[in-house]
Amino acid sequence: xxxxxxxxxxxxxxxxxxxxxxxxxxxxxxxxxxxxxxxxxxxxxxxxxxxxxxxxxxxxxxxxxxxxxxxxxxxxxxxxxxxxxxxxxxxxxxxxxxxxxxxxxxxxxxxxxxxxxxxxxxxxxxxxxxxxxxxxxxxxxxxxxxxxxxxxxxxxxxxxxxxxxxxxxxxxxxxxxxxxxxxxxxxxxxxxxxxxxxxxxxxxxxxxxxxxxxxxxxxxxxxxxxxxxxxxxxxxxxxxxxxxxxxxxxxxxxxxxxxxxxxxxxxxxxxxxxxxxxxxxxxxxxxxxxxxxxxxxxxxxxxxxxxxxxxxxxxxxxxxxx
Length: 322
What we know:
five-stranded mixed beta sheet, 10 strands
């Protein structure tokens, strides 16, 4: 994957912290000439308040100041803002090794010494901005890759991996809290016939329309709609009893009916229909969610055996665990 090069020279918001008024003005004039927006603070305490207000991309911090010096302010900023950490470039007249070590220990990324060599300052600010923007770019890419790993690309629903992670998290909570948990397993009736007649592109379009219908109905934050495999979809409904799950299943079928997707190869209707198996339980201690999914799968089988385009439901409990 090729990443576009970050624009290190584009404008940034920079906070200059220095108790010397003349130095503050010099820094502001120089940085504004570079195209940056510059805010000023006279000491560490003022810098903390200003940072919270403007969230600058870079901080130029004088080391020696009254009220709160640059070392203490730098450390405080690092403790308050950890993700991401502030980019702090320490400005100091102290060239001894101990002061430099102290600046880095406090969290500074780099330093320049007084009197300031402006070309050096310019390059170090550019480098900080480049590294910062590259890091943000990489984080965005990683977030996108993580999302892609959890989403079925055709339907944009959760994929099997995300579903299993979800159930692994929610099922133990349902056991602890002893609230009901329901599963809907949905299957598009005669989908092979649909694919054979309309082609794979037509089949993909059908799957996408059904997925949108599920998303329209299944919208509570705790619920999850996933593509379970092929033309099967699974709806996980934490804290939902059997009657609530049946209601959601009926709403899904009503939405599919409203779409009226043509299906001339169906033997039960001239449009796309769903068969749904619905299982619900208050999870017994020591149980696993796979048994509830298995119960929903059996009810789905019963729905197909009874003629399709229907919902068959039931409760699953301790007697079914063996």
